[in-house]
Amino acid sequence: MEIIKTRNKSQFTSVFDYDSFILDNSDLFKDFRQTFDLVYMIELCLRQSYPKHTFYKGYFSISSLYFKNKSRNLRAFNKIESFDILFESIKDKKVANVYTEFTYAYRLKYKYVSQLLSYNSIKPKTYIRDKFKIRFQYKGKNGVIYKTKKELMQGENLGRRMLEKNISQYAYEIRELAKGVPMVQSVRPSKSYSHRFSVNVPKCREILQDVNNSFTKDEEPTVSQYDIVGIHNYIASYDQKIPCYLSYERKNGGRLVNFGGSSTHIQFQSLEKSVREKVFEGFYEIDIENSAPTILLQSAKKYTKLELSKIEHYINNKQKCRESLMDLGLTYKESKELHIAIFFGASLEVHGSYNKNVWAYKFGADKIEYILTNSDYFMELYEEVRLLFYYLGKAIKNKFYVTDKKGKKVLYNSRGVNSAKYMDRWDNKKGLMHYYFGIESQILDLITKNYKHELLLYDAFISKEDVNIDELSLLIESELGFKISFSKRLIGKEQ
C-alpha distances in angstroms, 94 versus 57, 99, 338, 361, 366? Predict the structure, then answer.
């Protein structure tokens, strides 16, 4: 659902009962003028609308720029009263600075997540900025809140005459956000894609039960807020027999990115892998084997005269190649990530500590240098990949980098005019990735048209039904001309 904004007024629709939340936490909402801002920020956390923080798992990256033109006071969100009570943050100056463009890492405190989920309401309400309903309550001498004068008299041992004489000392006014008529769910642009889906419901319930047990013990759940909310929303809708959808917004390059934002449009594409393994246990995951290396290699053969034996060797011997770096101190997962990174243009020579695109930021320059120095195989592969980026990038530039009618330089990938990437100056890495995403997305589009699917994962998909991967490969080759291999596994079963 979209935020609707008019002159200094905004409104949003939520399945969470913020009226009860405000009353139960009245001491946190001291300035009623900031009530909407606080609730709005909580809502964006619960609907998974903040970008995930790059370096801190389970935290959001709440940038001041993110709120530009969205909410009146949110550009100064860190000055909002009670913000530090409702949210916890990691304030690392090495991350939050003008060079990285990252913010501090924030997340809603788990006790408030627990509280809001406990209301378990799926009937949507619309909350409106600057529109309040005044509710009078009474506060005793020790801060005890009474809903009626009768409760106040009994709790504070007051007679009627004494109460009326000193009523101003006990009166306590709460301004509750006003509810409006629920909005009709807004429809995303036609470029988006939605589909019904199913999950392993008993496993989802098991995850939520483990989360509730953690809340009861005042422990932090092992599942992130992102994942808790998504699973909670799905089960709440499932129990009331309300259809749920996975909806995707098509990015400029062609990739379909899953968005959440309501009780029926769930964000599952970014589930932590360990959580996804439970949510879709018993389903099939079908992966494009060596997606980027394969597509880039076949494209290089088509558009250049390069001989790329090292890349071919890696594609044909992926497992052994990755395992070879384990002797140099990397885990298999780290070796896998490092191999994938170089095929997405990662630089291993430049070690600027504030450059978020430098792979050494994660592993450390010394470890990267050690691998490049002590692994002849990886150094030769890396140099060949850089060669591919240079010559294939040049070929793609000559073929697809053009000047549009307005005189701007633009790159179109295989998706045509709907995939325009404007670049004043040519950049091999950006250009090749835009080109690759176009082909990758065409493969996923063919899958969505020809196979039942529960979740799309960029270069993979999850299906409840078994899929003949040989037939799938033939379909891709006949329609797109790329020889693509697929792997298949039953999720939750040991390989």
Answer: 16, 9, 23, 11, 19
